[in-house]
Amino acid sequence: MPPGRRGRPRGSTPSNAQSTLAFGGRNNKITKPSRPSPAAGKKLSGSVSPSVKQNEDVAKAIDDEPVKAPQVDDVKDDEIVNEDPTLAEGREHELAIRQSQQQKKKKKKKKEETKKDEAREKARKISDAAVNRYWHDREAERKAARVHQEELTLHDKILRHFDLSSQYGPCVGLSRARRWKRAEGLGLKPPIEVLAVLMKEEGKGNKGMERAFMDGLLGGSAVVG
Hints:
By secondary structure, the protein is an all-alpha fold. The protein is built from eight helices and no strands. It has helices spanning 38-45, 50-64, 85-124, 128-140, 154-163, 176-185, 192-203, 213-217.
């Protein structure tokens, strides 16, 4: 026969029974964290030691003091940093190169002016007879006589022939005198008789002879003078 189960007294609770949750009562009240009151803060600040307060005052005074930039007079001689000798040497070398280039430009300009004066002096000595011989030689090189030039003067014929001589560069956009000077500077050896004719016309006050005939036909804007 199976053993009988011993009964439990009514109203008693077993030792392993689950406890119930309680949502009421003072012990189970939920509260939020609160900030300290101003009175508590004053009380706390009053409790700061004098050394800490003194350090705070010193730090505040340092922050409030304006920063003063060092002046040139305040810098001592031993604090000045010497320039790198390599940089100084490179700067002197560059300066010497610039001075040399400027001197070369001046010499070149002076040489061109001297050559220009020599050319004008040589052209000034060209007589009318030499100009006629020059044109006679140009006419002898042709197989046929020129046409439609009966009304032109000798100087007009010489200058128009110079305009159409392409070996001396383009004739549009610059005066005849400048074209002659440019050709002379490039070593193209333009006829000295052309410069002589231009100087003779300049002496007469005829500035219109400076402009090439083709420049007038094409509506160019040569600078005369």
